Amino acid sequence: QVQLVESGGGLVQTGGSLRLSCAASGISVGSNAWGWYRQTPGKQRESVAAITTGGSTSYAMSVKGRFTISRDNAKNTVYLQMNSLKPEDTAVYYCKPIPYTHWGQGTQVTVSS
User: Fold this and answer.
1) What are phi and psi of 80, to 5 degrees?
2) Could you tell me how far CA 39 lies from the centroid of its own chain?
């Protein structure tokens, strides 16, 4: 059984930083490509970052230069480092293996102005 547990969210001020973690079980982080997504009420779910098995990364233009996706295969965990946070980054953040549909509970990020 696949389990994904996102953590690290919280309340920060504009310009602050957070590091989100996605602890996976029942699925190998290193054997799959992974993505981070976010969703706010009334908006479609948005892909914000992705990483391939080879380590190549891609980002939405809205976060490029501010967010960094990474992984630790030994810990079977995917990370999202978020810097220079803006109020528009406020959302629930989720991780997901790219080729599969499996969602965790997500973690709330709130950026105050």
Assistant:
1) -135, 110
2) 11
